């Protein structure tokens, strides 16, 4: 699975429903989570919060899901502005190499050795992909 697919899946489909490939193959898709299997590990991650709407309709509250995850993480991670912290929160590799791979997936055209500029761009693109795939994103995180 791609990195962007993993990110979208962990946030928008924490209960195992839906397809992470939607983030890759259907960038304009806006489907909500499917009410599918119950995965105890995922339930613990989101705490069963209102982030995942009942009945499989509506959109996932990205802020609620990530705040819930952050509240249970021993590290103080600033997922709102840092792609590195967002990836750490999702238990994904946040190394420069992994971020460069994510940049390739998202068609970054800038200098991948300028990690500060790339990181800012990556964070904005990830938030955009979450919204395109049915996530409810806070207004302050949108462009």
From TrEMBL:
Ranges of compositional bias, category Low complexity: 36-53
Stored InterPro entries: DUF3597
Record domain DUF3597: where: 4-138
Region (Disordered), start-end ranges: 18-59
Coiled coil: none
Pfam families reported for this sequence: DUF3597 (PF12200)
Entry protein name: DUF3597 domain-containing protein
Organism: Methylobacterium oxalidis
């Amino acid at each position: 699975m791609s990195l962007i697919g993993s990110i979208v899946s962990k946030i928008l489909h924490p209960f195992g429903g839906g397809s992470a490939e939607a983030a890759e193959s259907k960038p304009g898709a806006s489907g909500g989570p499917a009410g599918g299997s119950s995965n105890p590990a995922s339930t613990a991650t989101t705490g069963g919060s209102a982030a995942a709407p009942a009945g499989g309709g509506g959109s996932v509250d990205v802020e609620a899901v990530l705040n819930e995850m952050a509240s249970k993480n021993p590290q103080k991670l600033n997922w709102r502005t840092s792609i590195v912290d967002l990836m750490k929160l999702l238990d994904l590799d946040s190394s420069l190499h992994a971020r460069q791979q994510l940049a390739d997936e998202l068609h970054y055209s800038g200098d991948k050795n300028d990690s500060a500029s790339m990181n800012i761009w990556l964070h904005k693109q990830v938030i955009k992909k979450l919204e395109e795939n049915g996530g409810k994103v806070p207004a302050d995180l949108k462009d």
